[in-house]
Amino acid sequence: MHTLTFKDAKVTLLGALLLAMMVGCDAQGQDNTAAPPPPEVEVAEVHAEPVTLWGAFSGRVEAPQTVELRPRVSGYIDKVGFEEGELVSEGDVLFVIDPRPYKAREQLAQAELARMRSQLTLASSEAARSEQLWERRAISREEFEQRNAARTMAQAAVNAAAAALQSAQLNLEYTQVKAPVSGRIGRAQVTRGNLATADTTLLSTLVSVDPLYVYFESDQQTVQDNPHGQSVPVRIGLAGEDDFPYQGKLDFIDNQYNPRTGTLQYRAQVANPDGALRPGQFARVEMPVAAASAALLVDQKAVMTDQDRRYLYVLTDDNHAERRIVETGRRVDGLLVITDGLAAGERVVVNGLQKIAFPGIEVVPQPVDMRRTLKPVVVATAP
């Protein structure tokens, strides 16, 4: 029978401890090398939808009517009847030229007309008596003809005096410079007390504001793709805005291309009842340029760029993220049109792309709707 000495017990205990440490290290190593679970990503199914493709253009707002206000009569400015930059209505009195000299001329013309009418009355009476006397041969034919001629001349003088009175009345009316159209008035170039010369002095500038025109130009390819004529609805926004709050309608297409730029000019009319738009502003215009009966649309966040190529991640049947090179088209309602590389019904990763460490990685898909994160803003520009 073998007897265990103290030395042998010590060696056995040390071996047991070493074995326990090795087992613990192996267990810890196994824990450290265990594969992490597949990442969760949001996935949306691609559907083919009929869409209208919109082209984006840069334009400028212009007023249909721009009027340089100049006086029709000369005189000193007696009154400026507007606040600079305000909206005025057709017929509002904007400037008043001292009317007193023209009022005096009108009164003089009225007096002259009254005198000429009095002379006509006398000449007519004498001509009537001459007819009776001529019938009795009481006067010579020469005298008879002279009195008839005097009546004719008196009538002509009355007509001339009436025309002079009408001219004087017009000049008196022209001392009030009125707004020929409704719109926004500029600053007064001439103030009270200054002399304004007829048909020469610029008093101010008036531009109509409702409706307004937006002019923009399109390249030849877009024109060929867009067979629409006038009365096409367009969407308009200002520079710096994200949306297109103004609705307009195409009302003019030029009849020839610009030979320097190779573009064709378009014009849209837009209502502006509150005067928010101003002539001279830059505008962004969207016009329908084509229609697709079955377009494949994906969230733009799902599309990434690798140098000059665009790609996205498509899920396989066993939930592996496969990298797919695609061709893109225009943006419609916040989604990007995929023209090649994708098929309807495929699932695309739209959120959580940073979790895809390498192509082919297994993921846990979380189904979402393709349009769920989109704002109710329509954006339609070429990529």
TrEMBL record:
<dbReference type="Pfam" id="PF25917">
    <property type="entry name" value="BSH_RND"/>
</dbReference>
<feature type="signal peptide">
    <location>
        <begin position="1"/>
        <end position="27"/>
    </location>
</feature>
<comment type="similarity">
    <text>Belongs to the membrane fusion protein (MFP) (TC 8.A.1) family.</text>
</comment>
<dbReference type="InterPro" id="IPR058626">
    <property type="entry name" value="MdtA-like_b-barrel"/>
</dbReference>
<dbReference type="Pfam" id="PF25876">
    <property type="entry name" value="HH_MFP_RND"/>
</dbReference>
<feature type="domain" description="Multidrug resistance protein MdtA-like alpha-helical hairpin">
    <location>
        <begin position="107"/>
        <end position="175"/>
    </location>
</feature>
<feature type="domain" description="Multidrug resistance protein MdtA-like barrel-sandwich hybrid">
    <location>
        <begin position="66"/>
        <end position="202"/>
    </location>
</feature>
<dbReference type="InterPro" id="IPR006143">
    <property type="entry name" value="RND_pump_MFP"/>
</dbReference>
<dbReference type="InterPro" id="IPR058627">
    <property type="entry name" value="MdtA-like_C"/>
</dbReference>
<dbReference type="InterPro" id="IPR058624">
    <property type="entry name" value="MdtA-like_HH"/>
</dbReference>
<dbReference type="Pfam" id="PF25967">
    <property type="entry name" value="RND-MFP_C"/>
</dbReference>
<protein>
    <submittedName>
        <fullName>MexE family multidrug efflux RND transporter periplasmic adaptor subunit</fullName>
    </submittedName>
</protein>
<dbReference type="Pfam" id="PF25944">
    <property type="entry name" value="Beta-barrel_RND"/>
</dbReference>
<keyword id="KW-0175">Coiled coil</keyword>
<feature type="domain" description="Multidrug resistance protein MdtA-like C-terminal permuted SH3">
    <location>
        <begin position="295"/>
        <end position="355"/>
    </location>
</feature>
<dbReference type="InterPro" id="IPR058625">
    <property type="entry name" value="MdtA-like_BSH"/>
</dbReference>
<feature type="domain" description="Multidrug resistance protein MdtA-like beta-barrel">
    <location>
        <begin position="224"/>
        <end position="289"/>
    </location>
</feature>
<keyword id="KW-0732">Signal</keyword>
